[in-house]
Design a protein that fits this description.
The protein is α+β, with helices and mostly antiparallel strands. The chain folds into 2 domains: 130 residues, Alpha-Beta Plaits (2-Layer Sandwich); 105 residues, RraB-like (Alpha-Beta Plaits), CATH 3.30.70.970. Helices cover 32% and strands 30% of the residues. It is built from 7 helices and 10 strands. The strands form 2 sheets. It has a 6-stranded antiparallel β-sheet with strand order 1-2-4-5-3-6, with helices on both faces. The protein has a 4-stranded antiparallel β-sheet with strand order 8-9-7-10. Helix 5 runs antiparallel to helix 7. Pfam families: DUF695, RraB. This is DUF695 domain-containing protein. InterPro entries: DUF695 (IPR016097), RraB-like_sf (IPR036701), RraB_dom (IPR009671).
Length: 263
């Protein structure tokens, strides 16, 4: 009896997945695309044994001119997504991201195994007989699809961060049309790089607020600059992309922005 007790297999603990979902626009095969993914997986992936990448795709019935879902079709696509994600979760899969482009909606997941996958998918889609769908699996131990296809590049990632700041400003009653001083922070490898950047940024209408030398890190030379503008997303993104490009030319990295609330 005691031997059986002590030899009992240790139960496998359920995998805890953090969530930080975000969306961004890009182009896939030169077509407009929208990608939504769980950014939190970046710090823990690839997850051991979750080596099977699962792809599920449905053809939209009435895509708009950009190949995205229309307002009318959006609710049913959301319902299908929830049902597929729930069904795959029951067989141990992790839903990592989704793509809308060229009249299709694709979902990507990772799983330890793909047994009974077709049966699971059919169990959901039999309730949506109007939709054509397809599935595919492949071994992807390094999560290449997540990191090199779904995950945003530097510009797209900063757009996501910009949107989070703008949403926070909106919640606090900010009027984005009102011009105010927008602060930006950057870091550089050398003092010369920073000084060169300052001169170039001044020609673009920025002014230096402060500069400091940090005690540790690869980019020790901090810079804080500002420019008066509105806080509309188009303006913010354009200015931030401009600074990211200029920083890269001078061995620097962009580290975000902030501004006072205007109302």
């Amino acid at each position: 009896m005691f031997k059986k007790f002590f030899n009992k297999k240790k139960e496998e603990q359920p995998l805890e997945i953090k969530h930080d979902w975000a969306s961004y626009f890009c182009r896939v095969e030169d077509k407009p695309a929208s990608i939504r993914l769980n950014l939190a997986l970046h710090d823990c992936a690839p997850i051991q044994n979750y080596k099977h990448r699962i792809w599920f795709s449905i053809k939209l019935l009435n895509p708009d001119e950009n190949g995205f879902t229309t307002r009318e079709e959006f609710p049913v696509i959301c319902t299908i997504e929830d049902a597929i994600a729930e069904a795959l979760e029951k067989i141990g899969a992790i839903f990592v991201g989704a793509l809308k482009t060229n009249g299709t909606f694709d979902m990507y997941s990772y799983s330890k195994n793909v047994e009974n996958l077709d049966e699971v998918i059919h169990g959901v889609m039999k309730n949506y007989s109007d939709y054509n769908y397809a599935t595919d699996t492949k071994e992807d131990t390094q999560w290449d699809t997540y990191f090199n296809f779904l995950y945003p590049g530097a510009y797209e990632y900063q757009t996501i961060l910009n949107q989070k700041v703008l949403i926070n400003l909106h919640k606090q009653g900010d009027n984005p049309e009102i011009e105010r001083e927008i602060d930006h922070w950057l870091y550089f490898e050398t003092e010369k790089d920073r000084d060169t950047f300052i001169l170039k940024s001044e020609t673009l209408g920025y002014k230096m607020l402060s500069k400091q030398t940090m005690k540790e890190g690869d980019h020790l030379y901090q810079l804080n600059i500002s420019k008066v503008s509105d806080a509309n997303s188009a303006t913010i993104n354009a200015n931030v992309w401009e600074l990211i490009s200029l920083a890269k030319e001078n061995n620097g990295s962009y580290d975000g922005w902030g501004c006072p609330i205007a109302g």
